[in-house]
Amino acid sequence: MSLSTLIASIQTRVATGVAGTSYVIGWREADARGAPPRVEWRPTRHAYEAPYQGGSRADGFARAILGRAQAFEVTLWGVDVAQVEALFDALVRGCEAEAAGAWAYTGGDWARVGAVTAGEAMLCTVTLGAHVLETAPSTVTITGAALAPATSTPGDGVLELGESP
Q1: Helix, strand, or coil here: 71?
Q2: Which of 4, 21, 46, 151 has its CA 20 to 30 A from that of 142?
Q3: How many whole angstroms separate alpha carbon 143 and alpha carbon 141?
Q4: Per-residue model confidence as pLDDT tens digits over 67-93
Q5: Phi, psi torsion values for 41, nearest 5 degrees
Q6: Mind spelling out the 3-state secondary structure of 80-93?
Q7: Which domain holds residue 8?
Q8: 150: in domain
Q9: Is there a domain that residue 16 lies in?
Q10: Which residues contact 30 (CB under 8 A, 6 or more apart)?
């Protein structure tokens, strides 16, 4: 599963906890804040992580070549402190439900005076695990087969499939 897909799954759970929550991934929309409640996922640094070889993190079917711990600066923007707290709780529940064992919260800070023009905001660091999987082999389905006519001659000592002895 890609990180964008994982974040979308997490955000579905966040929106269930705090109705009307929108979100964005990336830095390009940092200035187009929309309106609270909103969660903004901005990728920062990533670090090597041992490739996981089984279970849901590596899909269980393909070998993981490389593991990556991708850190995000996550901004939780609410109309007031209570809504930011509700967003945080929903975020933690969503991360645990969708990425159990493959996520970490390493702290955060509240936005200071002048950092937001409306509402309140908390900036958090959330790390999600991702893996580069080897390319799976192609699967071929055989839908039919036909026997080629025999090329042997009687008495040559060669018996081919489909010939009678």
Answers
A1: strand
A2: 151
A3: 6
A4: 889 999 999 999 999 999 999 999 999
A5: -105, 110
A6: CHHHHHHHHHHHHH
A7: 3-133
A8: no
A9: yes
A10: 40, 42
